[in-house]
Amino acid sequence: MSAAPPDTREVILEARELTREFDGVKALDRFSFKLHRGEVLGLLGANGAGKTTAMNCLLGLTLPTGGDLFAFGLPLHQHRIKILQRSNFSSAYTALPGNLLVRQNLIVFARIYGLKEPKKKIAELMELLEITHLADRVTGQLSAGESTRVNLVKAFLNDPELLMLDEPTASLDPDIADKVRKVVRKVQKERNIGILYTSHNMRDIEEVCDRVIFLHKGKIVCEGTPTDIVAQSSSATLEDVFIKIARDGEVIDEPAKQP
Ligand SMILES: Nc1ncnc2c1ncn2[C@@H]1O[C@H](COP(=O)(O)OP(=O)(O)OP(=O)(O)O)[C@@H](O)[C@H]1O
Q1: What are the boundaries of each domain within the chain?
Q2: What spacing in Å lies between the alpha carbon of 142 and ligand 1's midpoint?
Q3: CATH fold of 9-86+190-251, please?
């Protein structure tokens, strides 16, 4: 099979040999990748593979012990504010202030982002994610699925060029998860956003991601389009590939030994 041609789109996020050690254990071990403008890149791996550590390093919440990070061609740590203005983040596991109403929370973020017409933008995005009816609810009283969608509205508010989505469908029912995947894809294509996307749901990944990286013990063990990865493995589905990597740390079966 011939190798895929190099991707000539602008690189908007890059890790070079990113390493993060915790008490002598490497959660990330010389992890390198590039995310291009207009691309959705899935970051996959079993529990403990290093995905959250990678996201936290990219968000500046964890300092790497080695390697370099760049966004829009700029070193991340020296240009944090400039980069954050062009980026956003949503996680199923981070909560907005619970005592505020949903609309108050979103107005606060809209002001932080300096939006010119915050109410209009918030109304548009709430409609897109079908949560207009939640505007006057207390944020801390929302269900997990409702707050995930409020978080997504927050993440789209500043029209980010770079978006990090950590398990955006984790607590959603299948109907809402399907709608959220479609909205993410629609907004991503319309605005040509680059998205780094984590999920344990392979249906999500196959529908949303153009390319995926599998991490195992902080190292890349496999990368490519979901279709190519399955085709090049001995597994029938991406879920089978995931299980094989989680259990064996590799994708390809050893060829049977000749007698
Ligand atoms: N603050 C910390 N202190 C010590 N070890 C940590 C810390 N954070 C992460 N680790 C370890 O680093 C490794 C990678 O963890 P990480 O949370 O990045 O995995 P993950 O791929 O996000 O897993 P999950 O799918 O369960 O969220 C694990 O072995 C974890 O125990």
Answers
A1: 9-86+190-251
A2: 27
A3: Rossmann fold (3.40.50)
48 Cβ inside 6 Å of ligand 1: yes
pLDDT string in tens for the chain (259-residue length): 556 678 889 999 999 999 999 999 999 999 999 999 999 999 999 999 999 999 999 998 899 999 999 999 999 999 999 999 999 999 888 889 999 999 999 999 999 999 999 999 999 999 999 999 999 999 999 998 899 999 999 999 999 999 999 999 988 899 989 989 999 999 999 999 999 999 999 989 999 999 999 999 999 999 999 999 999 888 889 999 999 898 888 765 544 444 4
CA of 53 to the centre of ligand 1 (A): 6
- Residue whose CA lies nearest to ligand 1 atom number 7: 22
Span from the CA of 247 to the centroid of ligand 1 (angstroms): 17
User: What are the beta bridge partners of residue 89?
Assistant: 164
> CA–CA separation, 165 vs 184, rounded Å?
10
Pair 220, 213: CB distance under 8 Å: yes
- Ligand 1 atom 27: residue of nearest CA: 47
Q: Residue-wise over 167-184: b if at least 16 C-beta within 10 A, else e?
A: bbbbbbeeebbebbbebb
27 lines ligand 1 (CB under 6 A): yes
Cβ-contact 171, 140 below 8 angstroms? no
Where does the chain show beta strands of DSSP type E? 11-22, 25-36, 40-44, 66-71, 74-75, 87-91, 162-166, 194-198, 211-216, 219-224
ipTM: 0.97
Report the separation in Å between the CA atom of 246 and the middle of ligand 1, taken as the mean of its atom positions.
15
